[in-house]
Fold these 2 entries.
Entry 1:
Amino acid sequence: MATGDIPQGGDTIAVIGGGLIGTSWSALFMAHGYDVVLQEPAKAAWPAVPERIATALRQIAELAPDLPAAGQLRLTTSLEDAVEKAVWVQENAPENVPLKRAIYAAVEAAAPAGAMIASSTSSLVWSELSAAMGDPARLITAHPFNPPHLMPLVELFGPDPDRLETAAAFYRGLGRTPVFLQREAVGHIANRLSSALWREAVSMVAEGIASVENIDAALVHGPGLRWSVVGAHMAYHLGGGSGGIGHYLSHLGPSQERRWQDLGNPALDRATQDKLISGVGAEARGRGIDELEAARDRALIAAQLALSGQRP
Amino acid sequence: MATGDIPQGGDTIAVIGGGLIGTSWSALFMAHGYDVVLQEPAKAAWPAVPERIATALRQIAELAPDLPAAGQLRLTTSLEDAVEKAVWVQENAPENVPLKRAIYAAVEAAAPAGAMIASSTSSLVWSELSAAMGDPARLITAHPFNPPHLMPLVELFGPDPDRLETAAAFYRGLGRTPVFLQREAVGHIANRLSSALWREAVSMVAEGIASVENIDAALVHGPGLRWSVVGAHMAYHLGGGSGGIGHYLSHLGPSQERRWQDLGNPALDRATQDKLISGVGAEARGRGIDELEAARDRALIAAQLALSGQRP
């Protein structure tokens, strides 16, 4: 494949890492007709892989029943074996700079020249990861939102606009919604937003304003529901009446700035951690992680089917 | 009606204020069989009221086609006339403490003794509003999320647990999801969360990390979609693997605290306002507020129909 070509069904994709993110990506690639070679160095992790992929494939089929027959999966411990015929490399190794740099060096040596390397990193940035590469622009960060096979978002950053456009076209072909960072930032966009919101959610628990369960219910039935439809900036535009965000800013900007100063800055100390843990326990009402996750996934699929093509 | 009785269909509800919130509440009450007397002192605002209510009633019918025949609407300029036979008073006057206090004094004098007074205030708190009342505990804050006839959330605060329970039962009967504050806070819960998230969204625009449109897209297709299904605390519980939030906090708490320190604290100065306004303009792609609002409402209805009874 030449640089700039978009991978096609039947091509081989290398997935580095067989954890939650790697298996979820694998299922998505396979559902779209790609063959996947998944490199997972720990053989102890292998048995869980096909089962997780099968579950994800069933969920993808609910969302998109018309996809082609699934591509093939092959597991390997060898990086070189995984990337040898790959047109795309999706890297999901642990968040460790030296480890990832060693992977990229091996991929640069073994993969076809045109194969791009996309890192799913959530907490590291491109400049750090690419610094030791022969061709740094071959790497992009392509951060999915968990679980990648159900969440449309992929956040892209890299220095080469052409390669980014190729990546965006590739992920769009997988039913994803790529967004672009203009400059790299720790946490990209979505995790910075999540972190900012959670800081206030933790603060309200620490300050005794509301319980974990009531805060989560307020989010789910209020701003969360609205943000599944319109973003925060657009919500303020629509909250400004016929004058839109310009009217909002000129009339309520100063009170918004005062409100920002009133927001909390909590510490995750022992007392606050205990409140969070017992509060989430009350919210879970005896349901285990697996049961909650399955319910979350069913609801995510229902919401996406309902919202597809419906948003402003 | 005695204190503690939940209003029944056929009862009369007084709605104070004929703006967006007052008309939206009126439609919701009417759709559930209540007669509404809406007090709006500015007769110039009257002509828009029935049209807005009719639109809202049509949207409610899409969400809940089996509701009883709608109650009656009557407009009045007189507060005394509005509340004389009311079993419930929903106050949506401008956010002005002396004005609201004067309203409560008039309502206390003219309304039946058992009628509760619920303020839709978004930015004021109960202690400020109730200070001059004969029976302060008769007032609660009951903050809806805009638009109230489509968004389930109602945030409740007041000093009397029995009256709060009555209020919660009343709003549940209207298909709402009431949540409780343990102590009052400016912005209640949802607007504090919104404000915290928007601060970071504005900061990323100001810092040139991403465009308004890409930030909104990241939210809608990432955390917003997930928060329409599970709250922020529950999301970290599910992000902690089989160890849940306890595992998350002990392993990633310190990095979350560092990330909080890295979040922005922007000013809404002229330059930032200009970036927000032009960015939202690009996102709107020529569509006016009415068109965007109609699309938002259609998508909200679709999401709620899909999610009803589906969330963990």
Note: DSSP finds 13 helices and eight strands in chain A.
Entry 2:
Amino acid sequence: MQHWTTIVAEKRARTLSRIPNEWMHPNIIQDMAEKNVKNACKYLDGILPVDEVNITSLDATALVENIASKKLTSYQICYAFCHRAALAHQILNCCIEIFFEEALERAKQLDAYYASTGKLKGPLHGVPFSLKDQVNLPNIETTIGYVSKVGQKADKMSLLAKLLHEQGAIFFVKTAVPTAMLASETVSTLHGRTLNAVNTSFSSGGSSGGEGSLIAAKGSPLGVGTDIGGSIRIPAAFQGLYGLRPSHGRVPYMDVTNSYEGQELISSVIGPMSSSLRDLELFTKLVVDCESWRYDPDVVPIPWRNFDGQQTQKLRFGIMTWDGMVLPHPPILRALEETRKVLIHHGHEVVEWNFPHSEELIDVAEQVYGADFFNEVEEILNESEEPVSDYMQLARNNILAKGGLGKPLSVRQWWEVSLKIRKLKQQYLEHWRDTANQTSDGKPIDSIICPVWPSAGFHDREVEHGCENYTMPFNLLDYSCVVLPITEVDEMKDKPNQAHLAKNASDKKMQDFYDAKKFGKMPVCLQIVCKRLEEEKCLAIASIVESCLSTMP
Amino acid sequence: MQHWTTIVAEKRARTLSRIPNEWMHPNIIQDMAEKNVKNACKYLDGILPVDEVNITSLDATALVENIASKKLTSYQICYAFCHRAALAHQILNCCIEIFFEEALERAKQLDAYYASTGKLKGPLHGVPFSLKDQVNLPNIETTIGYVSKVGQKADKMSLLAKLLHEQGAIFFVKTAVPTAMLASETVSTLHGRTLNAVNTSFSSGGSSGGEGSLIAAKGSPLGVGTDIGGSIRIPAAFQGLYGLRPSHGRVPYMDVTNSYEGQELISSVIGPMSSSLRDLELFTKLVVDCESWRYDPDVVPIPWRNFDGQQTQKLRFGIMTWDGMVLPHPPILRALEETRKVLIHHGHEVVEWNFPHSEELIDVAEQVYGADFFNEVEEILNESEEPVSDYMQLARNNILAKGGLGKPLSVRQWWEVSLKIRKLKQQYLEHWRDTANQTSDGKPIDSIICPVWPSAGFHDREVEHGCENYTMPFNLLDYSCVVLPITEVDEMKDKPNQAHLAKNASDKKMQDFYDAKKFGKMPVCLQIVCKRLEEEKCLAIASIVESCLSTMP
């Protein structure tokens, strides 16, 4: 067997080798630095041909419209996105598998199909679609960040990929993930580090950081990430994107490669990420309409239900300013306050959301994530002798510090964790119902609005300056969550919060980490949260909130 | 602490003491023997006043109609059922908690409510409703067959009980279960043995045997059992009743006491048992209409969906004659054949159902049931020092014989079991889809028809002459199943199957066990099986099948 360093070097070279020579730009990072540009998206807008910039500025919905009306061909679109993705990858290191040639060939076929039949294949006809590495495609490797998985191809195409393909999507890249997908940044010994497309000195977030980075650079209009602790929402929030964490059983996960397969207490879910909210709905409705419960036994047979809320209807919101453990940074707090004001201004009602067992939500979720004491990860790392990741060391120390056993749980300890989760779910639902006592019309809230992450991100190699406090609870609860861009960090408005006395060490660390200048102009997103299996409602409410925000003075 | 024998004696005496003196009949078993009657239901018809017999012959649907039209009062109905249940218990030992006084008081209140408002409380207004012991009620013990739980009252009323109460149900008894609910008969050191109401020399089945026995004796019109391996369906089948095993998440299990709480790979589910099919639908629609997902996080937000199949519409059935491991007895095979003929006669289509991985379904399910090597059961038994049950010894030996570890699984072994289940679910669904290749119109089957149990039951103390081969798979798959009475054992028609060569030791044991005379006149039921969360369809199809059978020449 080859030494792991050789495997890594060859894998990285192979990925790059799939980029056509004419799209290679060996000095691209240097060029950005010389031009003093940190925003990869803006930089690419400046160096790409105008017609390609115009195309890549469109969302999936608009792309299909342009194809349908024959203003653009699939080929033109695919070419523009492949080109841009090629350059984005050279800046951001966001892709792990590249197959532009096959994508362009398929685009030609789709154009021919449309020309000859006058029909589109489906609602995604001709749309370039990026996939997180976990999604399996024929003859393409799935390495999920492990050196030892280089060369491994899944025997089955993921069901979701099949459905999207049938509806006309064109796959052209698979995007990078951290080792085993178990981190809130995107770094692995295998592929290196994925940078933030809005500001390359920041982390792309993770674990769907490759996806977030590529989409934010407009190298892909629409793609899928997965989320077991925030992995769709964190990279979406760090890069000003829209993302949906659906509930388990709404979007098929069948034959998607994963860590800890068979772990069913907190299910990893797969969902869309895009620079457009309506694209999230396009994707989700399309997938639900495929009735994938006929194929995937984990999918719940719930057809698409239009949310009957009208723009004019009064909604009730619970705002969770903070969880009592780690206070969000000033820009996040400002986003919450601005959203609150604008919602009230539009006649909606806002109450406070303070769930009294937030700490337990985090503790129990961590018991799930560390249940096998990372034995599976270690075993797979050992196969290639690649070094144990910093992440795993941190995570293990965290478990031991919390009184963990230093070994995997027994099945009975696992059932105890399961019972704790059930109890927390019941308590959360009860707390939700009890908001009826706070609203003027005695109805419970429709949705929670809360931070995604306590800061607007972190610089690379600063992952420990963060916490999944605002994402993990909704994985444990299995609620539907939409990430919505609200504003950006404003040095003038977002002064440090001197009055706040840190509650604990994590809180102090987070507050000390704030520096308005450092975060300047970084996007600020919030989460719209609805209950389990309320994806339609969550997307519709996100749209209403966005529409209210658009009228903000 | 008292000796366990004292606790048992006192508990049994306490249960009996809740029966009014005028309803005590100390010689009832002797009287039946003298009259040479084995059927408790028929016996009770003979000794009870005619008006009470008339009332107790009605199903829940008819009872509510009679209350609504003021032909009967709740009190009259409650009195008749309490009286009959009191006698049934003295024959069958089917109850564990008795509270007639409270029930009759509530009946009076309901009558007064109706008289003063002209409104019924709900679709179960005034219907006596029996509950398997696991269901928690205020101030009433929940012992689930353990001596050590005597005196324990749950701190919360089960959500389902609350909902049923709100809809007008009158609780009057809780019914007996085997120790820990882990058996296909109903026997415990605590309460003794529950007899079959159709023929008292047979077992009532289990674990909802108390419920099945009481309802078959017409001591209750409608009740709920639970099912993790067949526990609703087996007692229903052994006593000629209707029963629904809903999918997990359709009927709320919240705050129902259980064994192995937190074990979530094969979920115990709660569902109705009755002597009427329409009562199953009455119950299920009512419960779904309560939108209990607002309270129980495990309930899936799927409203009641009327199945659009008409009596005249062609349906497609897969008939599973046997699973390739244990051939059902001749009466069961005849029931399948008669059903097949009658369905074809009515224009429906029937294809063969042969899932190739039946053995794996059983093996994997057993890995789940034995995952903790019965440590929990043993611990609870030890608290009172009651002896280890025969059932647990058998089950443990079975695990060891199959290469089990003799100790609980680790969390990673548990995840492996979980993965096996997911794979089997996918294979089953694929096999179901593939039936489209067998039907004339290229559509997959609507439903499977199959045995519930390979025999029409077993005599008391013969539980080892049985197997859950036809029930357990649908627990693992989480499919919706309705038990439907088809015929009864006929000595003349159901001659032993001489031609069959036993496939294995279990098969031989089952075949050797057959004796047409011994089973004579025992009810024969079959299962109608639909996919996960298809309760409405399953109930509607059962009704169509029943209607076809009613025209059988």
Note: The mean pLDDT of chain B is 96.
